[in-house]
Design brief:
mainly beta; Jelly Rolls; nine-stranded antiparallel β-sheet; 9 strands; Cupin_2; Cupin domain-containing protein; RmlC_Cupin_sf; RmlC-like_jellyroll
């Protein structure tokens, strides 16, 4: 067993799309998806950009104000720990934080069930 400290992992700073206070640290890769730890400093922003594939941002600590919509004009929604935002492929989206954020991003060819849905029959 290994324990990963997502907030303490060395990350790569991202400034693209007007982003600020944003860093990412790769966690894993499958044939179908990327797993990335994301940190966003207080007052930080991940600038509006199109999702390269289905993308799910799972908030672990802090707050995230997210927006999306096919034309990028979706109303901002604030989500917190234990909540996730999902964007579809090519959907323009943005993430901001007032107090700082640690999140897990899963991006790629992922199937999402409804909460409580067993994706793998072996889970029952």
């Amino acid at each position: 067993m290994r324990i990963l400290d997502l907030a303490g992992r060395p990350g790569r700073r991202i400034d693209a799309h007007g982003s600020r206070g944003f860093s990412v640290s790769a966690l894993g890769l499958t044939a179908d998806a990327h797993l990335v730890a994301v940190t966003l400093a207080a007052g930080g922003v991940i600038g509006r950009h199109p999702a390269p594939g289905r993308q799910m941002l799972v908030v672990l600590t802090g707050d995230a104000t997210v927006s999306g919509g096919s034309d990028g004009s979706g109303e901002p929604v604030t989500v917190g720990p234990g909540q996730a935002a999902v964007w579809e492929p090519h959907e323009p989206h943005e993430t901001r934080t007032a107090g700082g954020l640690t999140a897990l991003v899963v991006e790629g060819d992922i199937e999402l069930g409804t909460p409580g849905h067993h994706v793998d029959p072996g889970d029952v």
